[in-house]
Each structure stands twice: as structure tokens, then as C-alpha cells.
Design a protein that fits this description.
Order of helices and strands of chain A: HHEHEEHEHEEEEEHEHEEEEEHHE
Radius of gyration of chain A: 21 Å
CATH topology of chain A: Nitrilase/N-carbamoyl-D-aminoacid amidohydrolase
CATH architecture of chain A: 4-Layer Sandwich
Strand content of chain A: 25-35%
Shape of chain A: globular
Low-confidence stretches of chain A: none
Largest sheet of chain A: 8 strands, mixed
Mean pLDDT of chain A: 97
CATH class of chain A: Alpha Beta
Largest interface: A-B, 86 and 85 residues
Oligomer: homodimer
Number of domains of chain A: 1
Chain lengths: ~375, ~375
């Protein structure tokens, strides 16, 4: 499958091609509703978006009214973006270039009253793990509490009264200088309330991440913010239903999936996995992928028999949000920076649990027992033979 | 969301609307490949299909050649169909009407050298569980070993040398006359090699199945046939990632998902869940849904505040097959009976496990432990508070 960086998105193609009842049927069957409930954004945000060449899209997810609980309506946002500088520029310049870009997107999010904002995986650096080179890339690793990315975002979080999730390359100096793929959660007063380390690490194609960091050791934390209970399933963890499940068990109402993934590898999986997680766990999910093609100074190989090269494949963006009832937004562009916002009612999580009953019918005891057996070295698979 | 029985399918709409590079991009991003690898069928099958008004579609899923294993190519088939008689006809006539129809579809499958064929959930009866009436519907329940559906299919299985999965309403006379939602596995010599009982039972809308039968007590068996290791995740079990997971842990290479589900409830979830399961577990999945609108003699209500009525919603068919790499076939029609066949190489399961590494990176020990904790009555969720 060829990478096609220039193709804007399936969502745009469908909207520009179909109309009337056909478009309605497409929307109903594919997205789960005929009306996307698109909201308009402020002029300030439109101006920012035009000036700084990013897209902005807002959608509403109304829930049913309840008699005994008030609606709990919050706005969540996701930012997808390309890097700004050549990857052989000084590290501080590469990072500052991204900071300068991101500031505009965050300002637009603030204009739209976003309460919780999530950036993409390793947002303040190129996704250099394709190279297997330790330097200079390990120098991007920074302290979760007081690294440059955290300091930059703490200020904006406090200024705009916004929770910001900041997925970075973390260096833990207090524990042997180890490096981790980590999401830092900064609350709306600018305080770091905690962090989560990526639980599942890929070893596939150009994703040589196990060369740099281990599987996370922070469990499945849910962060109880003033705008809802949130969790972060970083990138490759989206292939693991058990990872999604544990965040749900711990009470998550929104799970963000900051990612970096390329066409040719995962594009046909992208609309499936985070959406399935929302359905299976009756919570909101927000899948975020970077955009653009990143070029590195030295050649690297991809373990696919092809010649050495300097370019990663195309990061295809396409960030999207899914509600607990499986209804999803159109995706952002495959090629442009973008800010995706949804206005959601957290009450929908419990409403869908009550209606569909997936947690009630889950038989968790059965599976706790089955998995306990399955991990034993002498486990016997339940096989019925043909004789 | 209105039910729209007349709309043939999104797949057909897209094929008739897009062309050239746009169609290629749609196919690549949506289905996972630009070429569906459609195979042609025999003239005998085309004649049968035309005469008896059903669709037939064949797709190939080629895998890589390996040096140390020969390809293990088999053909799997799925049948979706509507009922034939009014639901107030005598039970024997209703069942015989379906038998007469199904015989033609099975003959077409035999013409195409299908090795393993799966029928839809409760294939030999109307899906009467919306009524909450015990009679006459419980009279459709039959012995897994020697009930009329099994006897009918044993003969065809032996005649055509085909494994047939027969999802029925089972009555277990040896255990208190209990009723179960069961899939019977008949091998290519016509012998019943075992059965599996539906693990997760819905209580949603018109799916009042918990009124009739309990959660299955047969675990997660994998049937080692001469054409591969197969399992059956019946209907509502597709919402439960743990159910899919255990079939994978027990070695399944193909998991069938015989279903009965209606538009308005699940149509936007349908393309997501069985496909996600194929991806997450590196095996083939085959999702099968009945077609048509079934009308019952007496009024029933749907627990949705709407007036009593006699018609179930529209069963939207749309059966489809997904490979371990997430590539899927177009779906069968939303409205017509159909036979969907795929030629698959079972070797792809291990190839994708080796390539993507989802089982290696699964951290099953961690989750066995976490679930064991989670089911305890005094379980404390891992919550990081905002203070």
C-alpha cells in the first residue's frame, strides 16, 4: 500500500461526493448519526487557524437528560501537528519551533473553552525512534515535573484554566537515568498532578521503541480532574484491549490515545481500535496522530528488505473522537495540523452502561480466573479434537 | 436513526460512486487494500443464486510464502438469510421452509469447495426473543446431538465433506430441560464434534434473551478441525473483548460470530467489533447477521417508550470477513440472502503475530493480576486525585 500524503481524508471525500439520502445513509451507518452536530467556532480561532495554517473542527455529543443528575458537559480537545524544523537543527531550536506552533493551537482551544486538551505522542520532538541512534535523540528526554515541555505547558494551562495532557520522552534521573514514553497530566492551575508511562512498546517496522524504553511501570491510573476522570492509553497500547479495559475498570470517562503512526502500517486499523474501545468500555475515546513526513540526518533501515533511507513514512493525522455509544466525529485531515474539539456530556458513559449492559454482562470473574490459568507455564488450551 | 431496509449497502454505494484513485484511496484506507482479490464462482453457483435470489461473493486473502511451512489454504463460508414463513405457521413448516432455502445456499458453498461453513445465530427459527413469550418459541429448542437442525446438516456436511457450524436454540433434556443459545460443530464426516454455548447474553431493547437462557457454561473451546482451529463467539459476545481474547489464547485461527442484530441499535458498531477482534488477536473473524424484518403474532414492547408493535427492526445482514492483518471484505447486502466465501491461508495468523507482536507485548501476567484484584469486593480503583 503506497503512502499518499497528499490525499486529504476519506471524510472529506465522502462529504464532497455524496449528498441527500446517500450521505445520510453513509453518515448513519459509518459515523453512527446522520447529523454530526457540528458547532461553530469563534472568529478569533478562525483567524488563528487561517494565519497559522491549521484546521479546526467542533462537534457536540448531546446526552439524555436525567432526573437525578445534572448534565456534566465539558469540552475536550486534541491537537495534531507536524514538526517545524529540520531534524539536524539544534535540539533547543527544534523544540522551540514546535512550542511556537503549539501556542497558537492552544490559544484557539482556549478561545473555544476547551477544558481538557491532549497533545500527540512525544509532541515536542521528531519521532526519531526509527533511527536506533541514541544520540542526539535521547537528549530530547526531559523531566516530567520540570522539563521544558512541562514548564511551557504549565504556564498555558494556568493561563487558560485548562487541563493539558503532555506526552513526552521522559528521563527519570532519580531511577538510573532511565527513559520512558510518558504522558504528564497538568491541571488547570498549572500543577502536574501525575503521569502515566506507556504500557505496551512496539517492535515493528520503524517503531524501534523498545531500543529506547521499557514497558511502563505506572499501572492504569485514572486522573480525577475537575472536568472528569481521564486516562491515557499511549499509541501502541490501542492494539491491546486489556489496556483499554483496565482504564475503564479504574473509572475512566475519557481515554486519550496520543499516537504516532504511519500509513502503510496502520491506517486501516486506525478508525477501528480506539472506536472499539469506546464501545466496549462505555467511555469517550480520543485518538490523536501526528502529521507529516519526518526526515532524519542518517540512513536507517526498516526491517522490510527495502534499501536504507532517511524518511519515516507519512504520519496521517486523522484524529477523531468517539462517544460511549460508538458515534464518532469525522477525522481531522491526513496532512494538515489541526485542533479537534468535542463538547461531551460525561453522563453518557453511565447511560450507555445502563442501556447496553456491557459491564453487567462482562463476567469479569470468569476472565480473571481464565487469565490466571492461561499465564501458567503448564496451561492446557481448551481444545476439542476432531475424533 | 431510522431503519432503512431498502438501502442495499455502503459497500455498493461506494463502488458505484467512486472510481479511479479516489476508489483506490477509499479501499486502501477503509478495507486495508486497494484490490479486493475477488474470485469468480462456478456457473452452477451463479445459477443457484439467480434462481433462489441470493448473492454470492468470493475473496482471496493471500499470505506470504514461508520456507519451513507449506501454505494452509482453506475456504470459509458464511450464510445470511431471512426466514421463509409467517411466524404463526406450524413450527415444523417454518423450520422446513428455512431448510429448503438453506439447502440451496449450502449447495452453492459446496460448488465453491468451502471447507468450513457457518450459519447465522438461531438460523432455523425466527428471532422471537423480542416477544418474551415462552410458547410457541421454546418449542423450537432442540437437541444439539440429534435435533432436526443437526440431523439436516449432518447429512449435508457428510455429503459435501464440509465442516458446518450450526447455531441453534438448544434444549438440554439431561439437565433440567434447560434452554441454551448454542453453536453445534459438525465435522466433514457428518459427526457432531462438540458445541459451544453463548457466553454473554443481552438485555437490551428487543433482545430479551436472558428471559430464555443463561450465560454459557462451556468455556472458550477451540475446535481442532481438519481445516484449521475454529471457535464461535455468538452474537452479543462480540461486544466483549475478553471473550474474543480467550478464544485466541486457546489457539483459534478463525472465530465465527453468528449474530442477529438490527439497525437503529448496532449498525454503526457492526463493522468495528469483529474487525477489531481480528486485529487484536491475529486471527480471522467472520461476522454473520440475518436479514429481513420479522413480524410476530402478538404485540410486544421494546422498553423504549414507544407503542406496542409486532415487527422486530430490520436485520441488516452485512456479513463480512476480516484477516489477521485487519484487511476485510466488503459486506454482503443489507437486504438479500447471501453466501460470503473467503479463501484464506491460516499461516497468516502466525505471520502477523511475528510481525506486529501483539501477543508478545500483551503483558498477560500483568492483566491476570489486575483482573484478579479488580473482581474483589474491596477493590480500590487506581485513581490519582487532583490535589
Amino acid at each position: 500500500m503506497a503512502a499518499t500524503p497528499e490525499f486529504p481524508s476519506l471524510d472529506k471525500l465522502i462529504t464532497s461526493t455524496l449528498s441527500g439520502n446517500e450521505l445520510n445513509e453513509y453518515n448513519r451507518i459509518h459515523y453512527g448519526r446522520t447529523n454530526h452536530h457540528q458547532l461553530s467556532n469563534t472568529k478569533e480561532s478562525s483567524d488563528l487557524a487561517e494565519k497559522h495554517k491549521f484546521d479546526i473542527a467542533l462537534y457536540d455529543f448531546p446526552a439524555n437528560k436525567e432526573e437525578t443528575r445534572s448534565p456534566r458537559i465539558v469540552r475536550i480537545g486534541a491537537i495534531q501537528h507536524s514538526i517545524t524544523n529540520a531534524t539536524d537543527n539544534p535540539i533547543a531550536e527544534q523544540r522551540q519551533g514546535i512550542f511556537n506552533k503549539i501556542r497558537n493551537l492552544i490559544e484557539a482551544a482556549a478561545n473555544e473553552n476547551v477544558n481538557i486538551l491532549c497533545l500527540q505522542e512525544a509532541w515536542s520532538m521528531p519521532f526519531a525512534f526509527c533511527t536506533r541512534e541514541k544520540y542526539p535523540w535521547c537528549e530530547f528526554a526531559e523531566s516530567a515535573l520540570e522539563g521544558p515541555s512541562t514548564l511551557f505547558l504549565k504556564e498555558l494551562a494556568a493561563k487558560f484554566g485548562m487541563v493539558i495532557i503532555s506526552p513526552i520522552l521522559e528521563r527519570d534521573e532519580a531511577h538510573g537515568d532511565t527513559i520512558w514514553n510518558t504522558a504528564v497530566v497538568i491541571n488547570e492551575t498549572g500543577k502536574v498532578i501525575g503521569k502515566h508511562r506507556k504500557n505496551h512498546i512496539p517492535r515493528v517496522g520503524d517503531f524501534n521503541e523498545s531500543t529506547y524504553y521499557f514497558e511502563g511501570n505506572t499501572g492504569h491510573p485514572v486522573f480525577e480532574t475537575n472536568f472528569g476522570k481521564i486516562a491515557i492509553n499511549i499509541c501502541y497500547g490501542r492494539h491491546h484491549p486489556l489496556n483499554w479495559l483496565m482504564f475503564g475498570i479504574n473509572g475512566a470517562e475519557i481515554v486519550f490515545n496520543p499516537s504516532a503512526t504511519v500509513s502503510g502500517l496502520s491506517e486501516h486499523l486506525w478508525p477501528v481500535e480506539a472506536r472499539n474501545a469506546a464501545i466496549a468500555n462505555s467511555y469517550y475515546t480520543c485518538a490523536i496522530n501526528r502529521v507529516g513526513t519526518e526526515k532524519f540526518p542518517n540512513e536507517f533501515t526498516s526491517g522490510d528488505g527495502k534499501p536504507a533511507h532517511k524518511e519515516f513514512g507519512h504520519f496521517y493525522g486523522s484524529s477523531y473522537i468517539t462517544a460511549p455509544d460508538g458515534v464518532r466525529t469525522p477525522g481531522l485531515s491526513r496532512v494538515r495540523d489541526g485542533l479537534l474539539i468535542s463538547q461531551i456530556d460525561l453522563n453518557m458513559c453511565r447511560q450507555i452502561r445502563d442501556k447496553w449492559g456491557f459491564t453487567m454482562t462482562q463476567r469479569l470473574n470468569l476472565y480473571a480466573e481464565s487469565l490466571n490459568d492461561a499465564v501458567k507455564h503448564d496451561y492446557k488450551q481448551q481444545i476439542i479434537r476432531n475424533n
